[in-house]
Amino acid sequence: MRQPITLAAVLMLTLTFSTADASFPVVEGIKPLGVVRGEESTVTLTGQRIADASAVLTDQPGIEILEVKPVDGKTVTVRLKADAKLAPGLYPIRLVTKSGIANLRLLGVGAMPIVQEVEPNNDFTAPQTIALNQTIEGVADREDMDHYRVELKAGQRLNVEIEGIRLGYSLNSQNILDPFIAILDEGRFEVATSDDSALLGQDGACSFAATEDGVYTVLVRESSFGGSPANGYRLHVGTFPRPVSTIPAGGVPGSTLNAKLIAIDGTATDASVQLPSEPFEQWGVTIENENGISPSPNWIRVNDLPVAMEVEPNDDIRKAPAVEIPAALCGVIEKEGDFDCFSFQCKQNQKFRVQCYSRDIVRSPLDAVINVFAPDFNTIVSSDDANGKIDPFLEFTAPADGTHTIRVYDHLRGGSPIHQYRIEVTPADPTFDLTLKELRRDEASVIAVPIGGQSAAIVNATRKGYNGEIRMDVDGLPAGVTATAYPVPEGRGEIPVIFTATAEAAHAASLLTILGHGDEKSLGVMGRLRQNHKLILGQNRRGMWDYNTDRAAIAVTDAAPFKIELVQPQTPIVRDGSKSLIVRVTKHEGFDEAIPIRALYNPPGIGINNSQNIEKGKTEIEIGLTANGGAAIGQWPMILVASYPTPQGTAEISTPAIMLDIQNSFFKYEFPRTAAETGSQASIAVAIEILREYPGEAEVELVGLPNGVTSPAATQKISKDTTSVIFPIVVAADAKVGKHNTLVCIARVKVGDETIVQTNGTGELRIDAPLPPKKDAPPPVPKPEVKAPEQPAAPKPLSRLEQLRQMKNE
Amino acid sequence: MSITHRFGLIAVTATLALVTPTGVNRVSAIEPSESASTASARTDLPLVPDLAVYPGEIKLGSSRDFQSFVAVIKRDDGITSDASDRVEWSIADVSKAKLDGFTVFPVADGKTELIGKYAGAEVRIPVDVSGATTRPSISFEKDVMPVLTRSGCNTGSCHGAARGKDGFRVSLFGFDPIGDFHRITREIGVRRINLAVPEESLFLKKAIGSVPHTGGKLFDVSSDYYATVLEWLQDGAKIDPDNAKPPKVASVSIYPAQAVIEGEGKTQRFVAVATYSDGTTRDVTRLAAFTSNNSGTAAIDDVGVVTAGSRGEAFVMARFDTHTVGSQVLALPENLQYTPPKIEGSYIDQMVALKLQQLRIVPSGKCSDEEFIRRATIDIAGKLPTEDEFRQFVGDAAPDKRAELIDRLLERKEFSEIWAMKFAQLLMIKSTNDVSYKSAFLYANWLTDKFARNVPIDEMVRELLTSSGGTFTSPPTNFFEIERDTLKTSENVAQVFMGIRTQCTQCHNHPFDRWTMDDYYGFASFFSQVGRKNAEDYRERIVFNQFGGEVNHLVTKKPVPPKFLGGESPNTSGKDRRAVVADWLASPDNPYFARSIANRVWAHFTGVGVVDPVDDIRVSNPASNPELFDELGKRLVEYKFDFRQLVRDICNSDAYQRSTASTESNAHDHRNYAHAEIRRVPAESLLDCICQVTDSPDKFRGLPLGARAVQIADGTTTNYFLTSFGRSPRATVCECEATTDPSLSQALHLLNGDSVHNKIAQSKIIEKWFADEKLPAEAVIDRIYVRCLSRLPTEQERTDLMASMADDPNKAAALQDVFWAVLNSREFVFNH
Fold first, then answer.
1. What pLDDT was estimated at residue B2?
2. What distance lies between CA A679 and its chain's CA centroid?
3. Distance from the CA of A629 to the CA of which of A53, A657, A802, B94 falls in 20 to 30 A?
4. In this predicted structure, what is the pLDDT of residue A784?
């Protein structure tokens, strides 16, 4: 069984190499990094392979793209206007070209006027003077210190927030800006500093109320004097409100949320916010008052769970106030050593899912730990960090009817008025999440469908308590594009979706959604597409900043210079079998390049030779498939991908899908251990079991005979009654002595023009040198009679043991 | 004189906590007069000598027991001599005890006295005999194990090696008696012992060399060692039952506590006495292992006889069980002419002077002002004095200008940066795969900030050891990230903050100190509950107290409850164990912390610690001046752990301000501060000095331009100059990591490397003086000398330099050469 493993490993390697071939547009730089809402702005995007830029997709409403104009191969200007009412913050934009879609980038939208940094400002004594309520666009270069001087009146509050890492894009752990900001007084003492913050991650915000009239300096640098010319930042300096906490962090759609806002200086105010009518996993609350508007939102959750606020005293698990679940349990770990408990009724064997939001989305400094207690106050389950995040997540099954209790506290037993949490307790109903598999490492998949061609993506399903078939609907396609979504088979986690653009389709782009639901019996089990866009990766590709969307980008791109077809085979591939698929192209006039072909996706247990080209002058190629002994039986969509050169780099087109029928093996063999002496003849008797009926004619061929060994009848026909096949062998005098674990049987079943091939191994053949004559034995007397070799083979082949017995008897 | 000497003696016994201070019985018939302090000749012997007999009391607990004794006569000038054979000995009641040589044997139960008479002095030592008729059976642990240790069977080079020797392994220095018993009696069936014919036991035959033995013959058939083992075998080779374990050794004493021997070849007998936990004593002079830390001055043989050698000081030690104790031995030449200088000045100077007087050493005089400003500025601020500072100081006529300079230097931030760097080295602050550059940077900044704000060191250590939270938000938590191993963490804490090396005791009891494996695992237990988890930022980690986790003893494989080193086992339930140990560690009552820190400070300024190396404080590495060692620690506690004050004391002392020029009597001495030591300027400060005098700052990764080498946060920052000049690689907590050893690459780098030549060329400082300011060549030379060496050139130097430049048409280039030459001079790279 060594061989199939080696083969699989080789195939995987080639798969990895070939995926790196395709090229695609990349936006590396954005200048300016942000715009002022209500104003028309021109943003310059720089990058690679963007000469044919045609449009910009925006995920959120409110940014109107007025014009997209390629300047040269590496520069595109985008004229756009952010709505005057748009909430300040970061908005995703994706540049679309005629050959693809670039990476998602975040564009800052603010309410304050933008000024540019003017170097030199490295010296505290020679700073750049700015006015209050401005956004400064600057660069934190290596070991750079940027000083900005503002004037404050006594009592006036200065709030500073920086967008540094949040504006960046780096997947190679280079040029990552982790900013440090400080407010310095005239004596150069730091009166407020911020490096990392719970609210903004590596970015920070700080605040200072001037005790007397005077000039103050805002300092920006990379937190450990790193930095690079690529490290742009937006520094918001002003009197704007900067809340750090909205309590409770969420509500029911359509309701008015009466929340307590806690500002960066600790003051609390009441505010009411109209929540949207639709649920949102993450919804931004922006605060505006007479002093300005917060430069980035505070995030809350909007869904149907009723909010249950904590009621102090609730430190004791035996005296926890009662709430109804499902619910969103909200509260604050107000002081050090505080515990918050909630009790609720459960029936035995009811299963619940508990997800705490404290750092994720809510961005509270709380590092929550959750314990769930049974009615007897024994711990059922606890959670601190889960799913690679600081927030706890757990599922529990009620061990008995009665009062259960959830307790939450800070991991370091800390607490403060902003250590808030939202714990969503829901029944652990079956569900699943869908996402598009990253076809290029660390890059969210985009779909580029050539006009008149196809493009495929792979949907990954993460199942939570549901193991059945998942059916999917694709929505939001550009005109002229259709999608074929095969269902994710029961128990499986991935399946391709193929997109087809008609020959008449025009260049266009859109954002699509995929909604999935269970089979007939589980129509209520639903899940939808989410896509994670990695924006900053640190060492070893560990994530530092990312952005989630619920729509994926698709674009209709330039037509390929050929039509491509994958020929549907008429016969199945069997386990331990192999098959060739035929890819056929119709090259357009003037195009005759080699076309590399690779697999987009292998059905489970199928291996594909991934490094083949349709050579120049050829229009067809056979691609070999192998199925291992555990290949998943059933009908599987099969799609290959062809690449071709374009002025913007290598482009790809998928073949239309065929359905590959994977069936169980026909035959099962038992190989004997055969031994033969050099210069003799023997036979190898392979026992064969016919596992099921096969169509047509079948034959078995013995291959892998060692050097010097031949078989006069290596291929033998079999019928459905055959139980063994005997291959005569002739061992030459100079055949290699030793054990040869190389015998393999290839069965071929002919069905029409096609052949179903099944290959099994391995049998052993031992070749011995004849024993030398014994020393004290009488000189060998030539045997009086030598059996004629032409004598018909013995009716029953002898096993090794029987042969030895016979030799002894001789 | 003798009063002060007695003070010295008592202080010695106090430091060596295991020497019983009551073990001295002394008679002094007359109070010596002050005038006797100049006495040096034997003819001045007082009429009634100062006779002392050791041990101070004798207890004999069984018919096996015996006790040897020794008499010492001390002259008024402090010289002692072994008077055992001059004294007339007797037993008051011969029915109770008898004398054989210098040993008392029991006769019958009761009390009597050992009487020693000599030249009018009489000493009576109480002798208490009990159990004179009982003969306890041989105990494996109490009797046999000491024979193994004494004979060297269980040393690391013999069967005590980790894999044993020649197929037989016992625990190193006998840390595991039960295991040893099993290995001797059970491991290879009947091979090692032969209970039928005990004399035929291989165990014995190997030791007496009657069969081939790699270790050779260890003792004779006639020896008491042989008798002990044989009797044990004859009794059936039993182990001490669990319910009748022999008492533990509570303490060991070695007498006399001090010997000042005059004349090469003179001897002094020492007596070692063990006191057991049940109050009984035992003469272990024949069982203890004796060693000397300076056998050239005082060699000690295996029965405790010291022979004086060349002039100097030594420490002779006796090791028995897990205890090591020592006595100071001074060897002086005969008929030494010595007039002690007056003892005056600060506490430091008084204590140093007392010690020098003991050694009959005359200290060097004070250094010049020029030497002083350079020495103090380098030591306190890590820089050279500027030309202005130099001129102002040298021209200042105020009598207390040195003290004022010290005060001024102490206020500079460079002072705190030097100490932040020193501790950054000890705390191994550097970026690694586990500790990001940002973590290391924040940690170093935290440390610098603590020193800059003059946070008392006890408070800083408490904060460090109890820190919890993210390595970014709470930088001291990096202490637990840089070293994640619990055992190593506890070793590091002991070494950095108490100067105690406990590493040995991870696997066996410390052979040269009091620490046992129980101490080791008990102390490690304080750090066993440190939890670590990932934070949101992958570069950050969260360190916390997880209220659970134990350390298992290597031998018993069972958890060891937390126990302070040399202290009690506190109640830690429900507490952060780290907080408990930090409170103990940084407490003013902790005998180790303040002394260790003070000693590090002292060593920085004098080049050699009172205990040296500063992080290897142990019984067998005693302080050269125990009174000073204690007093520095006490002062640091008094100053509320503000060591600026201590630095002030040190730098204002004559001991610090002495000239490096030695005198005839102090040239050989480097431990007693009779003259200042010449020290290579540490790597970081040297680079800073070169940058300073050439006006050409270096650039270090991750720091803004102009940052100095002492400010480097990350120990892995590459810099060829610092590496070749021996900066600390920060791989261990050892003070020895930063070296000032010379090397060829250092010399070549200064001669040919970019540090000196390029900086001189880039700075254009010579051109500025010579071309822009139109200074004459002599004045430029003067400025170069003042800048680099803090002195004006001598007339000879000036003349020679001018003469060498006379033919050079390019005066500026010639002056650059002068600058280069000065920077390459030994005078520049040394602090003198």
1. 35
2. 60
3. A657
4. 52
Q: Which two tokens stand for residue A756?
A: 């179903």
Cβ atoms B114, B56 nearer than 8 A = no
A195–B538 C-beta distance less than 8 A: no
- Nearest CA to B446 out of B434, B436, B455 is that of B455
Using 50, 70 and 90 to split pLDDT, how confident is the model at A779?
Answer: low
Q: Which two tokens stand for residue B505?
A: 């005791």
- Report the residue of B536, B699, B703, B712 to disrupt the A interface, i.e. the one with the largest count of A CBs within 10 Å: B536
Is beta strand B121-129 parallel, antiparallel or unpaired with respect to B267-269? unpaired
Tokens coding A308: 């249950």
- How does DSSP assign B453-504, residue by residue? TT--HHHHHHHHHT--EETTTSGGGHHHHH---HHHHHHHHHHHHH----GG
Give counts: helices (H), strands (E), chain B.
29, 26
Residues A516 and A524: beta-carbon distance below 8 Å: no
Nearest chain A residue (CA) to B473: A196
3-state helix, strand, coil split of chain A in percent (to 5) is 5, 50, 45
| Structure tokens, A771 | 């024993």
Report residue A397's pLDDT band, with 50, 70 and 90 as the boundaries.
very high
Identity (one letter) of the amino acid at B726?
Answer: G
CB A308 within 8 A of CB A329: yes
The Cα of B750 is separated from the nearest Cα of chain A by a number of Å equal to 28
Contact call for residues A549 and A603 (beta carbons, < 8 A): no
Smallest CA–CA distance, residue B581 to chain A, in Å, is 20
Rounded distance between C-alpha atoms, residue B343 and residue B802, angstroms: 48
Q: Minimal Cα distance from B433: which residue of A?
A: A539
Q: For a pLDDT cut of 70, what percent of chain B falls above it? A: 94
Cβ–Cβ < 8 Å for B798, B777 = no
Tokens of A46: 């720089």
Amino acid symbol at A173:
S
What confidence tens digit (pLDDT) does each residue in B521-553 have? 999 999 999 999 999 999 999 999 999 999 999
B593-606 vs B643-652: helix axis angle to the nearest 10? 40
What is the DSSP code string of B157-184? TTTTSTT-BTTB---GGGS-HHHHHHHH
Q: Which of B313, B324, B311, B303 has the alpha carbon at shortest distance from B258?
A: B313
Amino acid at B63: S
Q: What phi and psi values does residue B635 have, to the nearest 5 degrees?
A: -60, -40
The 10 Å Cβ neighbour count of residue B762 is 12
Concatenate the DSSP letters of all residues of A215-236 into one string. Answer: EEEEEEEETTS---TT-EEEEE
Closest alpha carbon to B341 in B326, B323, B360: B360
Could you say which DSSP state residue B548 is in? -
Instruction: Report the candidate in A358, A364, A407, A406 with the shortest Cα–Cα distance to residue A386.
Output: A358
Residue range A69-109, pLDDT digits in tens: 999 889 999 999 999 999 999 999 999 999 999 999 999 99
CB contact under 8 A, A390 and B544: no
Neighbours of B44 (CB within 10 A): 12
Residue B704 to residue A143, Cβ atoms within 8 A: yes
Strands, sheet with B298-300, edge to edge from the N-terminal-most edge strand = B267-269, B305-308, B298-300
Q: Under a CB-based contact definition with an 8 Å cutoff, are residues B497 and B598 in contact? A: no
Q: Which three-class secondary structure state does DSSP give residue B433?
A: coil
For B704, which of A145, A201, A384 is closest by C-beta distance? A145
Whether the per-residue pLDDT at B747 is higher than 50: the answer is yes
The one-letter code for the residue type at A227 is G
Q: Does any CB of chain A come closer than 8 Å to the CB of residue B712?
A: no
Strands B121-129 and B58-60: parallel
HSE of B780 in the Cβ direction (CA atoms, 13 Å)? 26
**pTM reported for the whole predicted model:** 0.86
